[in-house]
Amino acid sequence: MNRWNSFNRREFLSTALGAAASFSVLPPGHGLISELLEPQTRFAPFQFPGEFIWGAATAAYQIEGAWSEDGKGESIWDRFSHTTGKVKGAYTGDVACDSYHRYKEDVALLEAKIRSLCTLYHWDLPQKLEEAGGWPHRDLAARFADYADYVDVTVRALGDLISH
User: Fold this and answer.
1) Is 102 exposed, middle or buried (0-12, 13-18, 19+ CB in 10 A)?
2) What are 138-164's pLDDT values in tens digits?
């Protein structure tokens, strides 16, 4: 094995700096080279700024449940997860976290200063729109714009409960 191929990065840097140090023009006793060669043993902890917002994204399919209640149509995820062999263990989002029925508990999270963020689309297209051509179909962009207007009305109605 070639001696140079057996070096890791630290050994290579140490050797290269050692060689450079022998030709150094720095005054005697200067500590730069020894500092560079000293192994790093301490790491400064990383701190997030005070205004940093921790968050998590969830899709309706992941949390709502109630997949066939109150006139909700089939979504692409409903179709996919109900197709035999598509999901290991045949799991579906039929119940999920059941937020559809437990919304009062979810709203109580506001007291814990948890901020809700609106998501307009999180990979859960209605199956009828998928069958009409899905996202490549030009008409879907206009339908999405109408949907966004509806969501805007909803967000304004919720007032200060949704700040982002």
Assistant:
1) middle
2) 899 898 888 888 877 877 777 777 766
Within 8 A by CB and 6+ apart from 112, the residues are none
Token pair belonging to 145: 């714009």
pTM of the shown model? 0.60
Q: What is the DSSP letter of 27?
A: P
d(CA 116, CA 158): 11
- 105, two tokens: 């508990």
CA 128/CA 134 separation, integer angstroms: 9
| CA proximity to 98, closest of 68, 74, 73, 66 | 66
Q: What residue has token string 């109580």?
A: 108
Burial (CB count <10 Å: 0-12, 13-18, 19+), residue 55: exposed
| pLDDT single digits (tens) 52-69 | 887 777 888 888 999 999
Q: How would you class 64 by CB atoms within 10 Å of its CB: exposed for 0-12, middle for 13-18, buried for 19 or more?
A: buried
Residue 136 tokens read as 């490549």
